[in-house]
Amino acid sequence: MQVLRRKIAQSGARTGTAVSAGGAERAFRLCLARAARDVMGLALDVTRATQDRLALAELLELPPDRGLMLMLDQNGGDGLGLMVISPAILSGLVEMLTTGRVTSGPPPNRRPTRTDAAMLATLIDAALTGLDVSLQQDDDRVWATGWRYASFVEDARTLALLLEDAPYQVIRADLSLMDGAKAGPLILALPDRLPRGDRNQDTPTASDHSFSAHLAAQVERTNARLDAVVARVTMPLAQVSALLPGEMLPLPLAGVDRVRLVGLDGRLVGEGRLGQARGLRAIRLSIDGRAEDSRPDEDRRDGSEMMQANAPPQPTTRQPTALHPLAPRRMASG
User: Fold this and answer.
1) Which residues share a beta bridge with 275?
2) Which pLDDT score is estimated for 223?
């Protein structure tokens, strides 16, 4: 059911639209620069940052070639997020950690490794921890707090399998290291979650009402078949197999004053009286009914029917007449 609700909600949401700068985007600028200064002694400036709400398919198109892709988890496993560091920024951070300075040369032509991810884990966790502190009183804390470094992703093709197919809040920041010695983008993508109060409240949301209305409309258009049973005849299989067109079947217990309405499962739905309305056969439903009649119709056996079932077969009289007009379509029940 939760899956259906999410699909209905996503169908009406517009993805790929810019989001007004909120607390998370502004706080991430400051926390990233502060973490670089405190952890590495690095001068890191965020020259530009944008925040968008993107679908997973749009997010998967953003990681640059040879960028460092890092999986993040929320509160130890509540969700998965993504951080992508461009090759130029990765090269500058590694240089700062290994040599204590950042050169202005181009980044090396190599693929990121798990060693790179392990070297930057402390910096990333420091920035995300600062984000937790900065957003304690902000509405963005629902989706932007509690995240930490989890693992390294070697192949971008595995992101579609790891990440949930849901909208994401995506912060794209252009970074500059040591007054422009190295520059490039960094991407932070976190699942867009509802506030916990809205997630746990009992009051149904607009999407809940929409889902219920669509589900009710589908159910109400479903055909419900009822069979009107005037009488039921039990006879040996050999006698049923010998029936021929033109034979007449006696219905000793048939009565137009008590017609049973039976569902497809054989359970009694109601009773009524056979009559006519506007030239068509109709049934007037009765108000009173017996409690024992709620059993499946096949299980209900009158004493006289049981006696008739146990009696030896009687010879049938062939007459050139049609079957009784009130005979049920199913000639025998077993």
Assistant:
1) 282
2) 80
Residue 127 host element (H or E)? helix 114-134
DSSP string, 98-117: HHSS--SSPPPS----HHHH
What CATH fold (topology level) applies to the domain 227-310? Answer: Surface presentation of antigens (SPOA) (2.30.330)
Residue 13's nearest CA partner among 170, 166, 234 is 166
Q: Do domains 13-200 and 227-310 have the same CATH topology?
A: no
Cα-Cα-Cα-Cα dihedral of 8, 12, 18, 22, to 10°? Answer: -60
Residues 6+ apart with CB under 8 A from 150: 70, 71, 72, 73, 80
Q: What is the pLDDT of residues 66-109, one digit of tens each?
A: 999 999 999 887 789 999 999 999 999 999 999 999 999 999 99
With H, G, I as helix, E, B as strand and everything else as coil, classify residue 89. Answer: helix
Rg of the chain (C-alpha set): 37
Nearest of 277, 323, 278, 269 to residue 296 by alpha carbon? 269
CATH-assigned architecture of domain 13-200: 3-Layer(aba) Sandwich (3.40)
Whether the pLDDT of residue 209 is over 80: the answer is no
pTM over 0.85: no
pLDDT tens-digit series, residues 160-172: 999 999 999 999 9
N- to C-terminal Cα separation, the chain: 39
E strand or H helix that includes residue 31? helix 23-35
In sequence order, which residues have a C-beta less than 8 Å from that of residue 312 and are 6 or more positions away?
A: none
How far, in Å, are 17, 51, 270 from residue 61 at the CA level? 15, 16, 61
* Structure tokens given for 183: 């520059």
Please indicate whether residue 211 or residue 292 has the higher confidence score (pLDDT).
211
Q: Which two tokens stand for residue 207?
A: 């999407």
- Domain assignments of the chain as residue spans, ordered by start: 13-200, 227-310
Whether the predicted pLDDT of 260 surpasses 70 = yes
User: Residue 291 above 90 pLDDT?
Assistant: no
The yes-or-no verdict on residue 231 having pLDDT over 90 is no
